[in-house]
Structure formats: structure tokens, C-alpha cells
Amino acid sequence: MQVYEFYNNNYGVRLSFLLSDADKRHGDSIGLFSYSSYEKRAQRIEGFRLRQGKGLGNEVLINYSKLKPTEQLPLIEKFGDPAKTTKVHQFCDYIIADDKALEFFSSYRLTDRRCLPGDVVIEYTNNANILGACHTIITNNAAKRKAMGGSKVNIWDKLSECIINLDKELYPHTLPANPRRLQEKYRNYKKDGYTSLIHKGFCNDNSRKVTVDIERLILSLYIQSNNPYVADVANDYWRFLAGDIDIIDYKTGEIYNREHFHENGQPLTLSDATIWNYINQPANRAVVDKFRMDTLTYQSIHGPHHHRHAPNHSFSKISMDDRDLPRKMPNGKRVKAYYAYDVTSGCVIGAAYSQNKTTKLFIDCLRNMFHFLDRNGYGMPMQVEVEHHLVNCFKEDLMKAGVVFPFVRWANPGNSQEKWAETGNRVKKYGFEKRYQDGIGRFYAKLEANRTKSEKIFDEENDRYKEKTYPYEVLVADDLEIIEKYNNSLHPNQKKYKDLTRAQVLEMYANPQMAQIDRPLLIRYIGDKTDATIHRNQYVQVQYAKYELPNPKVLEQLQPNNYEVTAYYLRNELNEIDNVYLYQNNVFICQCDKIIEYNTANSEWVDDDKDNYTNQAKYVSSFNKQIKEGKGDLGKVKVIDLKTGYHEDTPVDVVPVSTIQPSKAFDFDDNNDDDFNRLNAINSL
Predict the structure, then answer these.
(1) Confidence tier at 667 by pLDDT (50, 70, 90)
(2) To which H or E segment does residue 346 belong?
(3) Which has the least CB within 10 A, 93, 511, 562, 620?
């Protein structure tokens, strides 16, 4: 709280700082007299009381000049001379923080796009706050009376005196002490606003031009193809200034002019530390490393990236990627693997292996994933994330959005962290493969636990190392075992999926919007195919097995006089073909299930024989029924030659129906469809 106050051209002391009464005095009171003594002196001494107390903030003021010298001395010792401090305190009351000034200087950009330093922002903001207080006192009569005693004479001298005596720790500023220069600063501030407070030499364009040239030269030297050290760059710069070497800009074909690197006739010399600072300025470091690093390393160090979270449902998105298994085969090569991960659960839902990285590896992974989805009754995943390598050739068909997968996302090349499958590969490798397998890691890994041992063979080749190898079949079997352990381990997000494994999350949180798998379309891309012919209006033969049409109506979809079709099929996990899908001229015709033969001896029949017999009998019966209906639609016609009047009967060809009687071993019921089907089947033998 302020002790002194300038009031009606007199210095006043607040009464609470003078009283000795326990219930009246201020915490910092020096206790000169009691409240009753104050009342008596106010009545006897004229002008002793400058102002009566009127509400909050207008405390009673005692005239400092009416106090005894022995009473003034302790005030000066404790609170200072009022002639020196009162105006300053009064002035401080009008210094109000200007939020707009702080915002302006904080967001201001210099010509080189840098921000103002933090201490400069505080300095300029305080300058604006103090000049704002000057403006309030000058333009407001009440403020002028309170702070300056109401006099307009020498007001800039008084304001300058107040500003000089401000506490620099509380109000760090750089306003001039001279009244005339202060007044000029104020006028410029009112005319040009906050910009007038920024020093004109700050980031001067003329000096900056030289700095930009030096910076460009240093960075250009640093990105040479031999990746020089900073000391080499400094040495080349000194030799250039000395005239020992010339430097040519390949981009423009010009030779750098030494005169541009002089100031006042003297060369601009730089220390190694200064050159190091130029190169390692964050914006410059990102630029030079673009030349000195490979794409993958640069992206992992400097490249900004997206921040994402996993989907809430499994099968909302799957991520696919290839990798080499860490351990080698006897031929020195590594097994190529391709995985399909569900992003939400982290499960591996498809895997394929090969000794060569080809598009077949990708297709085999899709096949394995399809078997998994089909076996467990899941629908088609909503989105797939793939890379261009190996998959780009399917961009216009299989991997086109809306063909098989509703959404397809192509990962940008050279950005491995973009694909979630990279994360899955890392977790699987260092979380499970390293725990259950030997020789997992890298010989150059930073962490000792992830570093593999190697022993060099010193021979004429001098580039071989002793390393344990494994057969292809063993490596594949080991990896499948790891996948099983990985899928059935606890989900890493136990806060969200308490006590659930990855496999349980996959099953329990399946996306309810998944569509049923379009098997004919999918198998056309990921299955095998062969040319086939429809025999006897009933079946096609594929890989030495017969597959029956679903019904005779399918024949109506065939082109005229064309029984040739393309059969697509996908082997199951037992390497068997359960069904085939027929296409003719790239148009889907039907799905054909495998014909299962039945025993010709009724005495040896089992339940399967009876079912297989019934299925075949139904097809034969349907075909006969279809022919009979077609026959019934036809009739006898008579042809009349109008010239000769000759009549020619042209009956429709009638297909004789076999009249073989059933064996007495069977007792057929005319109203029993099964008996009817059985009869037709026998007749067709």
C-alpha cells in the first residue's frame, strides 16, 4: 500500500501509517500518536489534515509539512523522502498492463522471420505501458491533479523524473530520461503505434544481407558430396577469403564474389564455433541433412508426422507389410514374410512366406487372411493399408477402393512409421521373437540386449562371419508359433481392454458394419484358375474332380453354343478344393460345389451316401422338370405352302422318357418327392 500521496500541491501521509492504536494502525505503522491525539491536533492545527476519509481508497491524509521534524525522520528512514517517492508512486498507479502490446510484440516477425527475443518483448511492452500512463495523466485532469498536483507547467520534466525513478526490476524499460526526447518518443508512439517502439537497427537489412550471403556459402560448402566436417567447412571459407580457392555455384554457374564477404574493406572472419552455430541452427540443420542423409533416416529424424489413435472396432482397418525374418537360411538368404495386421487388436490375421519377394507373396497373404475370415465367419474388413511396393500392380483392380475393400489407403513411400504394420512387426520381433528364439537383433543395435554376436572369418575374402543358419521349413514353423503366442497375449492397452488378449479383442469388438465377403469377386483375384467345359449340362471337371452346377437354370446364362468357362478356385488349408466359381467372358455365372459320390450298394449305405444320392437326384429331377416344362410350351404345327397348297405336318421333336420300371426293392409313393427324385436318378444311370 502507498504511504505518501500528493494532494493539492502538498505531500500527505496516510493516517494508518502514523497511529499507535492497536485497532487503528496499519501493519507497517511507525506509531507516532494515538487516534485521539490525531483528532485534537486536527482541530488545533490549521491544514494538519489535508483530506478527510471518504470510503475505500480515500483514507485520511495528514500534511507531511505539519509534522514535527522528529516525526518526519522515522518516516524518511522507513518509507523514504516523500518529495522523491510520492510522484513515482502516484505515477505507478496509472501504469496498466497493455495486453494488446504484449500480443503485438510476441507475434512480431523480423525481416529474417525470427521472433523478437523474450527480454526485448518485455522491454517494448513496458515502454508501451509507461507511455500509456503518460497519455492518461496528460489527457485526464483528475489523473493530472492526483499524480502531478494539477499543474500543466513543466509536466514533461515531472513525467521524466517519475520515469527515471521507476524501479527497473519491476518496470524494465528503455525510455529516454531527457524530457524533450521523452516527449518526442511519446508523439511518435501516438502517431505510429507499437511499431515506433521497435529499434530501427534491429535486424537491419543492410547488415543482414551480408549475413545471408555468408550463411548460404557455409551451408553450400557443408552439403558437398563428401559430407565434410565443420572444421573442413571453416578451412574452405578461410582459404576462399585468402584467395587460395574459388567457389562456383553449380546451380547458377557463377563464381562467388569475395567482395560480398567484406565489411569496411575488411574480410568477415568467422570462428569454427560461429560456423557450427550457422549449420546447426534448427531450420538450417533440417535443410542440410536433406542432402547428407538417406530418405528413411531423414524422415525418422526431421520429418513431421501425423498423430493418430487406433480404431474402436476390429476389422475397421487392417495394415499389411512385408519383412525379412531375422535368421538366415543355409544359402545365406532370409525368409520373406508378408503379414496382415488388424490395427485395433494388433492380431496377425494373415501371413505368407517365400524365399523370393514377389507379388505372389502378397496374394498368398491375402489368401491366408481370407481363409481365416471365412473360417471364423467374419465379414470383409472395412479398410486396408498397403504400400506401393509389390501391390502397385493391383492398383486398378484388386486394390481399388470399392472393388474388394470399401476403403484402400496407400502409404507414402519412404515413410515406414506411417504404416501400423511396421509397429506390429517391431512389437512382434522384440517382444516375442527375441524372448522365444535365439539370434534375434542387429549387430549394430545401440542397446546391448538387442545386439547379436558375430565372429569374423579371416580368409582371403575377409567379409564373412560365423552365423547359425536354419532350414526354410524350421523358420516358417517357428514364426507361425510366435504368431500364435503373439495373438493370444494380453492386449497392450489394458486400461481399455482389461484382461483381454489380442485375439479376444479381435472377436469381441468386430465392426458391426462389415459386409459379407463377395467370394466370387475375391477368389477371381486371389485364387487359381483353369479353363473348363460344362459336361452333360451338369458339371465341370477341375483338378480331376467334378463340380456340379447349382441348378439347370444356370444354362440360360451361357452364350449360344458355348459351354466353355473359366473356373476360379481357392484351395483350403488341407490343399483341397471345396468349390469353384465359373466365369464366362469375365461375367460371373455361378458357384459349383464338389460332387460327392455315393456307394452303389444300398446295403453299405451310410448317412453320407444317402445325402449325396439325394443331392444328385434333385439335380437330375430339376433338369428333367425343366425340359418337360420346355417341351410343354411347344406344340405341333402345320406348314402350308401358299403356292402349291401342300400341307406339311411338322411335329416338334419329342424326347422319349425312359420307361424303366423301378426295382421291386424300392416301394415308391407317387406323392413322395424323394421317391420321385430317386426314380429319375435311376432312369438317368
Answers:
(1) very low
(2) none
(3) 562
Structure confidence at residue 664 (pLDDT): 42
C-alpha distances out from residue 119 to 100, 115, 122, 172, Å: 17, 11, 5, 9
- Candidates 483, 469, 470; CA nearest to 436 is 483
Backbone angles phi, psi at 126, to 5 degrees: -65, -35
What predicted TM-score, i.e. pTM, was given to this entire model? 0.58
* Pairwise CA distance, residues 276 & 282, whole Å: 12
How are beta strands 545-548 and 587-594 bridged, if at all? Answer: antiparallel
Grid cell at residue 328: 538366415
* Rounded distance between C-alpha atoms, residue 359 and residue 649, angstroms: 65
Contact 30, 74 (CB under 8 A): yes
38 and 18 Cβ atoms separated by less than 8 Å: yes
Q: For residues 329-344, b (16+ Cβ closer than 10 Å) or e, as one string?
A: beeeeebbbbbbbbbb
> Count of CB atoms within 10 A of residue 216's CB?
13
CB 249 within 8 A of CB 217: no
pLDDT of 145 higher than 70 = no
When mean pLDDT is compared across 21-35, 252-266, 533-547, the lowest value belongs to: 21-35
Place of cell 547488415: 207
How many angstroms separate the CA atoms of 231 and 553, rounded?
85
pLDDT class of 87 with cuts at 50, 70, 90 = low
Strands (E), 247-317: 262-263, 266-267
Confidence of residue 633 (pLDDT cuts 50, 70, 90): confident
The number of CA neighbours under 13 Å toward the Cβ of 381 is: 28
Return the number of other C-beta atoms located less than 10 Å from residue 217's C-beta.
20
pLDDT band of residue 565 (cuts 50, 70, 90) is very high
Residue type for 635, please?
G
Note the Cα 408 to chain centre separation in Å: 17
Across 181-185, 264-268, 536-540, least confident range: 264-268
In the chain, DSSP finds a helix count (H) and a strand count (E) of 21, 21
Q: What are phi and psi of 619, to 5 degrees?
A: -65, -45
Most confident of 237-251, 254-268, 325-339, 661-675: 325-339
pLDDT value at 666 more than 50:
no
What does the pLDDT read at residue 444? Answer: 46
Helix H or strand E encompassing 637: strand 637-640
Q: At what angle do helices 359-376 and 519-526 cross, to 10 degrees?
A: 150
Are 554 and 589 within 8 A, CB to CB?
yes
153: left (phi over 0), alpha (psi -120 to 50) or beta: beta
- Which amino acid is located at 7 in the chain? Y
- Mean pLDDT score, 88-113: 80
Longest dimension (CA), the chain: 161
Cβ(496)–Cβ(504) below 8 Å: no
Inter-CA distances, 149 with 177, 222, 362, Å: 21, 66, 90
Sign of the C-alpha dihedral computed for residues 215, 217, 223 and 229 taken in this order: negative
Query: What is the DSSP-derived secondary structure letter of residue 54?
Result: -
Q: How crowded is residue 431: how many other Cβ atoms within 10 Å of its Cβ?
A: 14
The CA R_g of the chain, rounded to the nearest whole Å, is: 48
Cα distance between residue 73 and residue 1, in whole Å: 20
Write out the DSSP string of 128-156. Answer: HHHHHHHHHHHH-HHHHHHHHTT--TTHH
CA distance 565 to 659: 35
Question: Are the CB atoms for 571 and 577 separated by under 8 Å?
Answer: yes
DSSP state of 595: P
> Would you state the pLDDT for residue 339?
96
| Cell numbers representing residue 186 in the block | 511519446
